[in-house]
Specification:
Layout (H helix, E strand, L loop, with lengths): L11 E2 L10 H5 L5 E5 L5 H9 L4 E6 L2 H14 L4 E5 L2 H7 L6 E7 L17 H10 E11 L2 H10 L5 E8 L6 H8 L5 E8 L16 E3 L12 E3 L2 E11 L4 E10 L2 E12 L2 E6 L9 H15 L3
Helix pairs in contact: 2-3
Length: 309
């Protein structure tokens, strides 16, 4: 039987419990320079960086649980305490958790190139996102992008105008040690492409503020006639998944998906009977960011419940 490998969960942060923006000097209990890796995958590069520069603090954004687990294993082997990881889309991370002019360097290795023209809308480094990153970098800060797909280089270059960056480009070898890089090397690719974007002019982009999420109360509710209408407006969307109703407890649990641009959150909303009527609010223990879509999700459930009679 394999011996269990214990890992420290300290590097993993629940983004729902963090103040926005976050005081990272307080989190790390020091004032070392702060760097960010976007999409750290299985953590090879992030763990290596943290070991090479122990007097630098690192934040990693990743959305896949399995990759976070593998990364935590690698970080446990270093014995260091200079990395924190969040399961979060990087755009939301930069918008809400990083204050302007606090990051010295940003790394992104092999972002999905979405090579088909119809899929280009999914690419990460749009002009808006580049301006956002610029706003969080200190003067002279650097964004490093490495890709295996040369047309992606040209696409990024097209978006750099008016983002405050000076651009450096070079061909590079396979020396980052990531899973995908090793896979491409095994397939015969030995040449990759690196963009170094250095901040020259500051782009002022403020912190995205939390929205007020209200609770509601109605006099009557009929779960048999609950009909939810999906909502979409200017990048904010709410989609219904299911409703579960406990007749004995007179409580319904509504599951919806709330989207604010690239930020997607699974939301549970409770409709519960009380002496004063039916109360509608977020389920207790829900870990989320109070965004416009979340506020709209609760409002949509309220409207559907109100119209169920």
């Amino acid at each position: 039987m394999k011996k269990a490998f214990y890992i420290s969960l300290k590097p993993f942060l629940n983004h729902g419990a963090l103040p926005r923006p976050t005081d990272w000097k307080a989190v790390f209990a020091n004032d070392f320079p702060l760097e960010v890796e976007i999409g750290f995958g299985n953590g090879e590069y992030l763990a290596g960086l943290s070991a090479q520069t122990p007097r630098t603090n690192f934040i990693g954004f990743e959305q896949y649980c399995e990759r976070i687990q593998r990364t935590l294993r690698k970080l446990s082997r270093t014995g260091l305490d200079n990395v924190r990881v969040l399961r979060l889309d990087a755009r939301a991370g930069f918008q809400r958790y990083l204050s302007p002019q606090t990051v010295s360097r940003v790394h992104c290795l092999y972002p999905p190139p979405w090579p088909k023209k119809s899929d280009a809308k999914h690419r990460l480094f749009t002009a808006d996102f580049l301006r956002l990153i610029n706003s969080r970098l200190v003067p002279g800060g650097v964004l490093k992008i490495v890709t295996d797909h040369y047309p992606y280089v040209d696409w990024v270059r097209e978006n750099i105008r008016d983002t405050g960056f000076a651009v450096g480009f070079e061909k590079t070898g396979a020396h980052h040690g990531t899973k995908f890089e090793k896979k491409w090397v095994e397939g015969g690719q030995s040449e990759f492409y690196q963009l170094l974007l250095t901040k020259q002019d500051h782009m002022p982009v403020g912190i995205t503020e939390d929205s007020v999420v209200q609770s509601y109360c109605i006099d009557h509710f009929d779960p048999e006639h609950f009909s939810f209408k999906d909502y979409s407006h200017e990048g904010t969307a709410v989609a219904f998944k299911e409703i579960l109703y406990d007749a004995k407890k007179k409580t319904a649990l509504v599951h919806v998906i709330a989207c604010d641009g690239p930020l997607t959150q699974n939301i549970r909303i409770v409709i519960a009977h009380s002496p004063k009527g039916w109360r509608i609010n977020l389920a207790e223990g829900t870990m989320l960011m109070p965004t416009l879509a979340v506020a709209r999700a609760v409002e949509c459930v309220y409207e559907a419940a109100k119209n169920s009679n």
